[in-house]
Structures are given as structure tokens and as C-alpha cells.
Amino acid sequence: GGPDHRFRARHRASDTSAARMKRRTFIGSLLATSITGLAQARKPDRPRIAVVGAGAFGGWTALHLLRSGARVTLVDAWGPGHSRASSGGETRVIRFAYRSRIYVDMARRSAALWRKASESWSQPLFTPSGVLFLYQKGPGSAFIEDARAHLADAGIDQERLSADQLGIRYPQIDLDNIAGGLYEPGAGYLLARRACQAVVEAFVREGGEYRVAAVRPGSVNGQTMTAIRLSNGDRLAADQYVFACGPWLGALFPDVLSDVLTVSRQEVFYFGLPEGDRRYAAPDLPVWADFGERLWYGIPGAERRGFKIADDTRGPPLDPTNADRTASRAGAAAAMAYVARRFPGMRGAPLIEARVCQYTNTRDGDFIVDRHPAADNVWIAGGGSGHGFKHGPALGEMLAEQVLGLRDRKPVFGLGRFHG
To answer: What is the pLDDT of residues 349-397, one digit of tens each?
Structure first.
């Protein structure tokens, strides 16, 4: 019974204990495997969804669908934020002032999601420079009164400014004919092209599939669309299809949208700022809009591109694919004359850049977010009407939930309103 005996006894006991441990581990793993297999068997298949269009509406819809557990393929003909896109260009205004409460709430939700994206992706997509609305007696005043009521009810910061207060705060503006202003300190501008690209990058990083191809709808039989056709000859089959193709929607679905959507040519101009003069750049001057006989708006000095100005009046029809996008001399002259009148310190500023983009307009200015009337598995999202970009995150969230059956459709965005 010496030390060797005690060692052998301890060794035999250890072997027995190890054997019991292995048996328990083996049985436990079998149970875990069985439970996992049962859970997988009970879990419904992840829906397959194809989203066509990687702009503000399509990109955010694809990202929300992916984060909700769907298998998502996002397809775009030229890439996010490309030069033909309504979601292209450097900047877009984000404001909360609307005459309709639904857009106030959507803009507030979108602003929260834009801020969160800026932080989590470490990209300054949203700059809260403030937005200033200038209005004359008559033109614009009704909009201001309705917007102020909605903003107050929603608890969104706002400031009503008299003409005298405007003159003290913004001496660089000629306030001739201006009756007053409405200032939104939490509003500002978004980096449009960069934002579209960031959304698609996040989508791919989180497991989505992204493809560059032109798309043609599949055939429709018995309220169901079959696989869509890609320009490389492939067919892409899915359980649900979302078309968020901006100005190309009408050509894809002429039977449904030919009398609903119009595409208008819009010109944007950039004037060079005076050397060393910060009066016409943020933060000295916020994003602004002037409600006069025409609605002019501008984003001062954003991204050092110059003094951006545009006329919101709807222009002539435009072919989004093949149109010559050279700005007109008449448009440039009108913009130059307006800048010289309203911002005297910019008189004689050189035109340093011009762009031609487009608005995809509905007859009433409200968006389209609805099922295709002849295909239950097809969704259409578009009709941004010049104010859609800012709403991309909230609209994508809403549409993703509708596609997945988690939220009811909103009649205000339905196609039925055009044919009721």
C-alpha cells in the first residue's frame, strides 16, 4: 500500500470520472443537436427578396429587409449615387417643416436614422446646419403657418423670426419683400452621393448581395410575377420584388404609372464664394428657402463646392437615361440674377459648376409605396417629387415591414388614390 498504490487508485478514479464526463458531454451534445435541429425545422424559411434600385428608397429598404432576417439581393444599373440618379449629387436638404403631418413624422424618424448611421459608420452624412424659410406676405405664409402648427404638435424645435430679427441675424441677406422667417435649428443637409454609397456598403457588409445590372420585370401570371431578367442574361427569382427605380419606374410599368408619374428636368448651379468671406457658408448662413413668385433654395458652401442654388419650379420633361445634361444659359442667368438681388455680397460671383438632375413627380406630390395592382409579390416605391431623399430611412423601414407583412399599407401612398 505505498505511494505507487495510492497513485494507481487515484488514476483509476480519475479515469472513471473522465469517462462519466465524456458520456455526459456526448449525451448533452446529442440533446443540443436535437433541440437545434427541431428549432431549425420549426423556423420558417427566410424570404427571398429582390430590390431594384440602390437610391435613397431602394438602398434603405434593402438594408431594413436584411436586418429583419430576409435574404436580399439589391440590383442597380449604374451603382449607388450615380450621375443620372435622382439620389445623386453632393447634397440634399433635410427639413421637418411640412403642411402634412405624415411627412413631419417621417422626416423626424429619418433624421434619427441618418444620425445613427453617421455615428455607427463613422461618416458625417448629416450636417445639422439649420434650415431657414423666408416668406413674403401671401406666398409661403400659408405653408409657414401650417408647418409651425405641425412642428409644435410634434415637439420639434422651431423659431419664428420677424423681418427685423432676420436683418440682425442675417445681414448678408437682402430682405426686400420678406415678411418673416421660420428657422429649424435641428434641420440641415445630407451628403447624397456619399450616403447612398454608405448604405449599400453597410448592406453588403452585413450579408446582403449586391449586383450591377439593368432589370426588366418578369411576366405576370395569376397575380404573381416570375423571375426578373438581368441585362447579363441571368434571371433572378425571389418571393417578393421591390422596384424603387426613381425616374425609370414609368418605363418599367407603363400600364400602371404612365398617367401617374412625370420626370422633370431640374437645374442646379454653384457660384464661387468671395475669397475669405464666410458669410455665405455654414455656419454663418444655414440652408435656406425663399417662398416668392418662385421657390428658390440653397445649400451654402457645402463640401466646399460653392454657393449651391436651385429653382424648385418643375422644368420640362426629361429622359433620365439619354438626356443631355448641359445646364441652360437661361437657367444660369436667372440664378445669377436672383443671387445678386437676394445676396448682394455675391453679386458678380462666377458660376463654377452646374448640374442637371430630375424630379420624379406624382400628380399630388405624395409618394407611391404600394403593391402592383396586378402582382401581389411586386412592390413599387417612388414619386419622390423633389422632397423624397431625406425620407429614405423611414420610408425603407415602413416598406420593409409592409413587404414582410408587419405593417399595413398607407392609403395616402397607395396607387388607388389616382384611380378612385
So the answer is: 999 999 999 999 999 999 999 999 999 999 999 999 999 999 999 999 9
Give tens-digit pLDDT for 113-152: 999 999 999 999 999 999 999 998 876 788 999 999 999 9
Residues 6 or more apart whose CB falls under 8 angstroms from that of 1 comprise: none
- Residue 94 C-alpha from the chain's centroid: 10
Inter-helix orientation angle 101-120/141-154, to 10°: 60
Would you say 271 and 354 are in contact if contact means Cβ atoms under 8 Å apart?
Answer: no
* pTM of this structure: 0.89
Is there a contact between 223 and 171 (Cβ–Cβ < 8 Å)?
no
Listed in sequence order, the DSSP H helices in 73-190 are 101-120, 141-154, 163-169
From residue 262, give the alpha-carbon distance in Å to each of 92, 364, 374: 21, 11, 22
> Grid coordinates 455680397 are at which residue?
345
CB 166 within 8 A of CB 286: no
Q: How far is CA 412 from CA 84, 92, 110, 115, 349, in A?
A: 28, 24, 18, 27, 43
- Return the C-alpha cell found at 170: 442675417
> Angle at CA 340, nearest 5°, toward 342 and 140?
30
